[in-house]
Amino acid sequence: KIRNGHEPEFLQAVQEVAETVVPYISEHDIYAGKKILSRIAEPERLISFRVCWVDDSGEVQINRGYRVQMNSAIGPYKGGLRFHPTVNQSVLKFLAFEQVFKNSLTTLPMGGGKGGSDFDPKGKSDDEIMRFCHAFMSELFRHIGHDTDVPAGDIGVGAREVGFLFGMYKKLRNEFTGVLTGKGLSWGGSQIRPEATGYGAVYFADSMLKTKNQTIQGKTILISGSGNVAEYAAEKCIQLGGKVVTMSDSSGYIYDKDGITQEKLDYIKDLKNVKRGRISEYVDVYPSAVFHKGKTPWVEKCDMAFPCATQNELHEEDAKTLVANGCICVTEGANMPSTIEAVAVFHKAKILFAPGKASNAGGVATSGLEMTQNALRYKWTRTEVDEKLKEIMRDIHASCEQYGVEADGYVNYVKGANIAGFVKVADAMLAQGVI
Ligand code: NDP
């Protein structure tokens, strides 16, 4: 706390893990005195660098770039890049720390990392995005590699950005390797990678519901965000017969009482990814929907909620409202969208609650499958990758149950995910000695 007092998001993430893992450590002698959790909480390496580029008006712009190489005990560093004005060391350390546990849960050999920049892609031309990505990679390339550190996308970094980043890496290294995941299908990308985080979250929710003999069919569902994770969470919910009534962006949320259909979702995908518009424009095309400016969707009545936008977007009061309105299942698509106080409300009410490090792990898991395909120079079909994703999400659910079940039978998925993720990394660190 003394060393990281100026990093609130990072402290929040470590506190949440420590609350469940420290009691486990104290009950298991092999970890005694090894300071494993303290070691995991210190990045193995943290790189900060200047990114200079020229905007369309010819003016020089300066941003700050980062890569946090958190833990490589079980594999190369792996984790996304975020381009957003709120990016700072605290946010990236929290994301990298979470990533260590998440990647461990996937059962694939991936360590944890995260990176990005305070660059704001909003309102930038394609040429500006390209120049920024090229400038960013012209420094990052010396720190990464397919056996060292394999970045991917996150907020503000989608297929377009991964393309520009990969292009510059390839030029500088003169090699075509799987150094980034989330690549385009025709140049090394995996089937299902764009869909994987959102689909995976819904597969996880489905496993949780099954423990209560329920399904997604007929459920009313709130989703926040309208980016990659939100779009594909919505798509899978719709495919499984759920009624999605909200989506949002940083300007507010739309409520569609008739439910967002696949056709309406296709409009949102085009609006956000191609036209780069705002979610408020939805009501111009579908006037029976309502736009709530500057608000989050948690006040609406629902059976299930999927927070899929950003960290700390769901507060204690929101959690109380959700529970009071009859919500029985909250599945995090984003990383740490619920505050610690909100999670406590869900646990007290004993509703199904999945932390992001378990429920959104499908994205990085499929990135791991992309790395395998690149290494094999082979491609699996869409069905093959989707089946593997389903199996991984079922396994993560089973690991959470194994470590998270409480005396009264309630499954605390936070505890389960933290301990299951910890054990594998901790055992590898023990085996490798104090380094
Ligand atoms: P995108 O950039 O595709 O979408 C982000 C969405 O969240 C947009 O709708 C954006 O709105 C909204 N948003 C961003 N910041 C804020 C904010 N401060 N307040 C309100 N809304 C906000 O990102 P992703 O969908 O990829 O990522 C969403 C979350 O999922 C993040 O927490 C990310 O770390 C996590 N995640 C992503 C994975 C992936 O594979 N992409 C994997 C695992 C986790 P606007 O358009 O207005 O900015």
Automatic annotation (TrEMBL):
Source organism of the structure: Wenyingzhuangia gilva
Q: How does it assemble?
A: Homohexamer.
> In which family does this protein belong, per the annotation?
Belongs to the Glu/Leu/Phe/Val dehydrogenases family.
Q: What is the lineage of its organism?
A: Bacteria, Pseudomonadati, Bacteroidota, Flavobacteriia, Flavobacteriales
* Gene3D superfamilies, per database record: Glutamate Dehydrogenase, chain A, domain 3 (1.10.285.10), Leucine Dehydrogenase, chain A, domain 1 (3.40.50.10860), NAD(P)-binding Rossmann-like Domain (3.40.50.720)
Protein name per Swiss-Prot or TrEMBL: Glutamate dehydrogenase
What CDD domains does the database record attribute to this sequence? NAD_bind_2_Glu_DH
Its gene is: gdhA
Q: Does the keyword Cell inner membrane apply?
A: no
Keywords on this record? NAD, Oxidoreductase
GO molecular function, a single term: glutamate dehydrogenase (NADP+) activity
Domain Glutamate/phenylalanine/leucine/valine/L-tryptophan dehydrogenase C-terminal spans what residues? Answer: 190-433
Pfam families (UniProt xref): ELFV_dehydrog, ELFV_dehydrog_N
Answer yes or no on keyword Oxidoreductase: yes
